[in-house]
Amino acid sequence: MYLGWMIISSFILIVSITKLLIYLRTGWCNSKICLIGKTVLVTGANTGIGYETALEFAKRGARVILACRDLIRAEQAKNRIISLTKNDNVIVKELNLVSLKSVRDLAEDIKKTEDKLHILVNNAGVGFLKHKYTDDGLQILMQINYFGPFLLTILLLDLLKRSGSSRIINVASYLAKIADLTPENINKPNEGYTNYGNSKLGNILFTMKLAKLLKNSDVTVYSVHPGTIATNIFNFYKGIGKLILNFLSSLFFKTPEQGAQTTLYTALEQGIEKYSGGHFEECSLVSTYAKAKNPDFADKIWNKTIEILDIEKDVEDCLFSD
Fold first, then answer.
1. What's the rounded Cα separation, in Å, for the pair 20 and 179?
2. Which residues contact 54 (CB under 8 A, 6 or more apart)?
3. Catalytic position from the list 146, 196, 222, 289
4. pLDDT digits (tens, 9 = 90+) for 174-195
5. Closest C-alpha to 297, from 158, 164, 201
């Protein structure tokens, strides 16, 4: 009995210390900026850090567009946000990143219905999926995490550029460090967690390249590592594995609110425009990961992505038009 209580007490102590360390290490967005009159779009905003990000934008008075695959859960999230913030300028739009047509349809809808877009947060993503190719001929995880957000951003660039000072935030991950990305394998299945790392390295390289191309505009671009978050991104696990992961994540991972802070920082903090193209963790600019240091490599991935998506004309129209 004594040994049992010792084990339980030790476990509680470890959990408490871990929670305290996570809290102390977490960077917090302390910006007081008001967003009345601003329009923001957050993908995957019905749950997790996407929801917390959208909630904070709504608290600040923004017009908030929740772009989500599951419209029922998105409507529920919208209603919660309106109830908590008393800001009824929150709307839902459908976005299924498994379909490039859905991406294009959303972009066309936004351009027809919105005269401004000041913040675009490419938050939606998945953790790990069994390999298959989508109807678009793309590796499914890469399409959801990388190709889809890439296309959506390109298609909304005109609107972002016309909106004056605007920002794009791409949610990446520290796991970009395990990537094995090349122009040759960008659309191929890879072993283990490599596809996930490849997609997140792609997000970072996209951010860097796009920032260079937009350097003479009022649009800035940032990538962020939110930390390891207790969200449903790992819902691909089933049965006992899912129960164990959910239990451990609730004890040792960041909360969604904590995980949203760096996204909010890069979206709201004034004076960071000079760091466009940079990567942020814990509300601070960090050194570029080793695998993202080569600008020639970023160019090659950019060019291959454009080729695969067949968007040469879209890029020309959105990036190089006045």
1. 31
2. 40, 42, 45, 64, 66, 77, 81, 90
3. 196
4. 899 999 999 999 999 877 688 9
5. 201
Q: In angstroms, how far is the first alpha carbon of the chain from the final one?
A: 75
Closest Cα to residue 208, out of 172, 157, 178, 260? 172
**Spatial separation of the C-alpha atoms in residues 151 and 146, rounded to whole Å:** 9
Question: Bigger pLDDT: 241 or 98?
Answer: 98
Whether the Cβ atoms of residue 64 and residue 89 lie closer than 8 Å to each other: yes
Query: Measured between alpha carbons, how far is 113 from 71 in angstroms, rounded to an integer?
Result: 19
Which pTM does this prediction carry?
Answer: 0.88
CB atoms within 10 A of CB 287: 9
- pLDDT computed for residue 254 by the predictor: 72
pLDDT for residue 23 is more than 50:
no
Residue 84, pLDDT above cutoff 90: yes
Number of H helices, E strands in the chain: 12, 8
Residue 288 half-sphere exposure toward CB, CA atoms < 13 A: 18
Judge whether 196 counts as a catalytic residue. Answer: yes
121 Cβ partners below 8 Å, 6+ apart? 40, 41, 42, 43, 50, 53, 169, 171, 263, 267
- For residues 143 and 305, the answer to whether their CB atoms sit within 8 Å is no
22 pLDDT more than 50: no
